[in-house]
């Protein structure tokens, strides 16, 4: 499903060059639930962004479902982000002026779905995350847990195979966080490939596999939680 | 679908960012409004000035007597050259480019009296053609001097409209009898009100006109004070003037190139100058207009840049959710176009409204009636549209070229 070979990512800020990823080799199979851990600045988010096609590697090869991402155009990448990958952010990243309904609808609009289909799908997704009664609420009228559930519904809109979550519970209290983690487990059980970045070893403990990063390199890969 | 989202988002934005959107729109509104008004008033002033200049007469020249300055066939310089009515007839019969001619005798301080109203005015003795030459048009229900008045040396008088008001106030003047230095004259006409901003003997609206034959009989004058000539529209005034010098030179034995034998005021030169002047004036306004538009455009593009910074995160989110570059571009371009269009239309409507109510301010006497210049307005709209497009497109392209993660982090 996801294959990386010697992936390097460098950032240049002014004259300072910073290497966030120093040659990552990684293989994630379809249907796996992986947790990515590591201290701040270890390159977790950078790795996640590259997996999610939000960014491109400086060198090395990344293949997603057999396609070499490095060879794709920006429109192809947009298509992948739209249909193949669902991204859940720590900061939710909902559009502030849009209602829960409208936020979930966005990926469907970009996919060109018909109005009737969109309506059915949005309602289905929002009830799946338990927010059928908050359809018309804007982000400012929702709690953090609710916002994150809207974001998950949005990530699921086009039935992606892969769900990427960058510290999805980082901004939530433990109860809301627990509900979110539960949601991810349900998704995993329905056959999605899930990758979660987390600091929380309790959450990591529920994963099939833990990938530990340090200084832009993989420290340990595939260890089962102890 | 996407445009619909955009429009929806545009109105959402309006609500969310009231001040910013209001300022942007106000910039465009103000630019459009001021340019449309600028052109409208420019046009109005130009038209009213040219109309006022024409109040003296179309395509005419005024001839005064003079003194010769060149020796001619043994005759010395310094001879006075004056004209009679016969000279005017001679010019009329010999000139090929002349359209009309009238001599004008002038009497100053003529006492005009109606009942108890009493005034001292300048009175001209003229031919019937004078009405066309000098645009002294009779108001409704009245007439100018005609050939029978001339032939019978009738005691009839035509009054300038202000003079008629002075004498008759609200009363009907036509057909009434007034005393002209004690002699009764019948009022045959009153001048239709006109604009006049130049003259050689006061404004026509306070002068009075009688037949030249009557004048001659009353004042026993031999020489006329001035002659008014009008060139044929197809001929140039220059040719007509030369003909007059030729004809008069032959009659009074002076060198036709002696321009001091009599002096000519060619009013067509004034109109030509005025037209050039106002052409330059229009270019000047045009320049100001373009500068205003550029300033407005820079304003819009600046605001769009700020908006873009603010909305980079939103762009990042949309790209993360699968928006293609074209969609992002389209959204921003549409949004700028909408702001520009709404501001532009409001400015246009407001300018129109101002021009509609303008007559109630009663300033037309001084600056004329403003007139919307359609071509100019269309140009404003087109330029604004282009400015809107450019100022929406370039910053949006910059944002859409970012990697989604950059757009997300830049916030």
What does this structure look like?
The complex is a heterodimer of chains A (about 230) and B (about 400). With about 230 residues, chain A is α/β, with parallel strands linked by helices. Chain A has a single domain (about 30-55, about 75-225), classed as Rossmann fold. In chain A, about 35% of the residues lie in helices and about 30% in strands. In chain A, strands 6-7-8-3-9-10 form a six-stranded mixed sheet, with helices on both faces. In chain A, strands 2-1-4-5 form a four-stranded antiparallel sheet, covered by helices on one side. In chain A, helix 3 (about 100-110) crosses helix 4, helix 3 packs parallel to helix 5 (about 145-155) and helix 4 (about 115-130) crosses helix 5. The longest helix of chain A is centred in the C-terminal third of the chain and has 16 residues, at about 175-190. The two termini of chain A are about 25 Å apart. The mean pLDDT of chain A is about 90. Chain B has about 400 residues and is of the alpha+beta class. Chain B folds into two domains: about 1-55 and about 270-410, no CATH class; about 70-260, no CATH class. Helix content of chain B is about 55%, strand content about 15%. Chain B is built from 13 helices and ten strands. Chain B has helices at about 1-15, 20-55, 85-95, 130-135, 145-150, 160-170, 210-220, 235-250, 265-320, 325-355, 365, 375-400, 405-410; strands spanning about 60-65, 80, 100-115, 115-125, 155-160, 175-180, 185-190, 210, 225-230, 260-265. In chain B, strands 3-4-8-5-7-6 form a six-stranded mixed β-barrel. In chain B, strand 6 and strand 7 form a beta hairpin. In chain B, helix 1 crosses helix 10 and helix 3 crosses helix 8 (about 235-250). The two termini of chain B are about 25 Å apart. The mean pLDDT of chain B is about 85. Chains A and B meet through helix 2 and helix 3 of A and helix 1, helix 9 and helix 13 of B.
């Amino acid at each position: 499903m996801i294959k990386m070979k010697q992936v390097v990512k460098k950032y240049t800020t002014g004259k300072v060059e910073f290497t966030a990823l120093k040659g990552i080799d990684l293989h994630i199979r379809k249907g796996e639930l992986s947790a990515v851990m590591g201290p701040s600045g270890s390159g977790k988010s950078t790795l996640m962004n590259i997996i999610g096609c939000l960014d491109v590697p400086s060198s090395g090869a990344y293949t997603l479902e057999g396609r070499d991402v490095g060879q794709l155009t920006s429109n192809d990448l947009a298509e992948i982000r739209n249909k193949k990958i669902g991204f859940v952010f720590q900061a939710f990243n909902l559009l502030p002026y849009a209602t829960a309904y409208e936020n979930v609808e966005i990926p469907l609009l970009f996919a060109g779905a018909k109005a009737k289909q969109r309506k059915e799908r949005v309602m289905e997704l929002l009830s799946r995350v338990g927010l059928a009664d908050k359809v018309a609420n804007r982000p400012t009228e929702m709690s953090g847990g609710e916002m994150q559930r809207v974001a998950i519904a949005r990530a699921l809109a086009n039935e992606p195979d892969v769900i990427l979550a960058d510290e999805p519970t980082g901004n939530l209290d433990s109860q809301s966080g627990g509900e979110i983690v539960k949601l991810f487990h349900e998704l995993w059980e329905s056959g999605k490939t899930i990758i979660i970045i987390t600091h929380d070893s309790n959450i990591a403990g529920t994963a099939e596999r833990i990938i530990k990063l340090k200084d832009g390199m993989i420290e340990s890969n595939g260890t089962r939680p102890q | 679908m996407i445009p619909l989202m955009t429009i929806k988002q545009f109105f959402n934005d309006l609500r969310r960012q009231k001040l910013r959107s209001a300022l942007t729109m106000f910039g465009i509104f103000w630019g459009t409004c001021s340019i449309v008004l600028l052109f409208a008033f420019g046009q109005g002033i130009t038209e009213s000035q040219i109309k006022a200049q024409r109040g003296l007469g179309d395509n005419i020249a005024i001839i005064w007597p003079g003194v010769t300055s060149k020796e001619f066939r043994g005759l010395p310089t310094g001879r006075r050259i004056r004209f009679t009515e016969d000279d005017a007839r001679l010019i009329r019969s010999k000139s090929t480019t002349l359209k009309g001619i009238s001599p004008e005798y002038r009497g100053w301080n003529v006492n005009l009296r109606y009942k108890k109203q009493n005034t001292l005015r300048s009175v001209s003795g003229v031919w019937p053609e004078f009405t066309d030459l000098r645009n002294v048009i009779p108001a409704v229900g009245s007439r100018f001097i005609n050939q029978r008045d001339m032939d019978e040396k009738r005691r009839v008088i035509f009054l300038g409209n202000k003079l008629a008001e002075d004498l008759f106030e609200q009363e009907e003047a036509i057909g009434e009898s007034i005393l002209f230095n004690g002699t009764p004259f019948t009022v045959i006409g009153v001048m239709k009100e006109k604009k006049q901003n130049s003259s050689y003997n006061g404004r026509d609206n306070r002068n009075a006109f009688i037949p030249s034959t009557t004048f001659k009989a009353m004042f026993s004058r031999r020489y006329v004070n001035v002659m008014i000539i009008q060139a044929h529209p197809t001929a140039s005034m220059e040719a007509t003037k030369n003909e007059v010098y030729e004809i008069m030179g032959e009659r009074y034995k002076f060198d036709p190139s002696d321009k001091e034998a009599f002096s000519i005021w060619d009013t067509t030169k004034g109109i030509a100058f005025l037209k050039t002047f106002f052409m330059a004036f229009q270019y000047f306004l045009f320049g100001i207009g373009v500068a205003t538009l550029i300033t407005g455009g820079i304003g819009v593009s600046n605001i769009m840049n700020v908006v873009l910074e603010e909305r980079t995160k939103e762009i990042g989110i949309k790209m993360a959710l699968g928006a293609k570059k074209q969609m992002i571009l389209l959204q921003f371009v549409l949004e700028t176009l909408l702001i520009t269009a709404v501001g532009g239309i409001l400015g246009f409507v407001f300018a129109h409204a101002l021009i509609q109510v303008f007559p109630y301010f009663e300033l037309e006497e001084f600056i004329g009636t403003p007139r919307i210049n359609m071509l100019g307005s269309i140009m404003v709209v087109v330029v604004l549209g282009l400015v809107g497009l450019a100022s929406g497109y370039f910053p949006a392209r910059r944002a859409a070229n970012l990697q989604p993660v950059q757009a997300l982090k830049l916030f």
